[in-house]
Amino acid sequence: MRLGLGLGLSRGRGAAGATGILDAYTGAAFAFAPDTLIYGTHSVTDNEVGSVTNGNTDAYTVRVRRSSDNAVSSFTYSEVSDGTLVTWVGVGNDGLVEAAYDQSGNDNHATQSTATNQPKIVDNGVLVVENGKAAMDFDGANDWLKSLAAFSQPFTYFVASTKATSSQDICMLDGDSGTNFVQLKYRDNVNRFIIFAGGVLDGNIANNNQNLHYALYNGLNSEIALNDGVKFTGNAGANDPTAITIGSRLDGSGQFWNDKIQFISLYPSDQSANRTGISNAINNEYNIY
């Protein structure tokens, strides 16, 4: 039983016997979805001091702070979707993401300890969703998460997200080391989807839609796909990032993502041969395209 402020909430049963959507494509360095089991073998210990679940191990996907009293607790993928999270957050309150737990087993959790920089997963007592699945909502002003992972090329990522309209560049995923950065972003004024590191690849996208984005960063062999359709291939530079952030760049540019993100998987390898298989597995869960 989880007990918090007089409210008893049942625990999830964990991942025993469960099948994750990417069990056939292992090897990710970071993988996150709030209400989806990405890998069948997954457990995390919540070690946040003061958290309701501090010291407990389960198939946690997210740690949430409640706006009404700043209480913190972790939740499994099933507890996000079955109403347990919303009940704990309470009517009229917000639930802010303090940690997006890495399901890959590498403990590259994406965290944000500053309250004003945390994206929402519950908004005014209602779960944030896109196409019926839970998502994190970034405000476009100062929300972001950081993973401790560092990657050398090649690396590949898949991101399921929506997009808001804006007149400025908005970042989604970024790794930065001084002036060397690899960045997945949109440029709304020309309607482009970009991976950027000493060079630019772009392709047409639709505003305000849920999409599955794929990018391989591999120097001369870099490529981009949108909803499993390859847009561009070519030179994206040869810089290696030292960290991965979600929702903002690390270089102080003031660029922030302004919409929902509901799935991220980062591979420290070239997954171009598995692109269609991985994309199909994700699409079967999210019904994006």
How far apart, in Å, are the first and last alpha carbons?
Answer: 39 Å
- Sheet with most strands: 12 strands, antiparallel
How helix-rich are the residues, as a percent range? Answer: under 10%
How many helices in DSSP terms? 3
Question: In CATH terms, what is the architecture of the largest domain?
Answer: Sandwich
Low-pLDDT stretches are 1-14, 165-169, 188-193, 196-202
Radius of gyration: 18 Å
SSE diagram, text form:
Layout: E1 2-4, E2 7-9, E3 30-32, E4 44-45, E5 57-58, E6 60-66, E7 72-76, H1 77-81, H2 84-89, E8 95-100, E9 110-111, E10 120-123, E11 126-127, E12 129-130, E13 133-134, E14 136-137, E15 145-147, E16 155-161, E17 169-177, E18 180-187, E19 192-196, E20 200-201, E21 211-217, E22 222-226, E23 229-234, E24 244-246, E25 260-267, H3 275-286
Antiparallel strand pairs: 1-2, 3-25, 4-5, 6-7, 6-8, 8-9, 8-10, 9-15, 10-11, 12-13, 14-25, 15-24, 16-21, 16-25, 17-18, 17-24, 18-19, 19-20, 21-22, 22-23
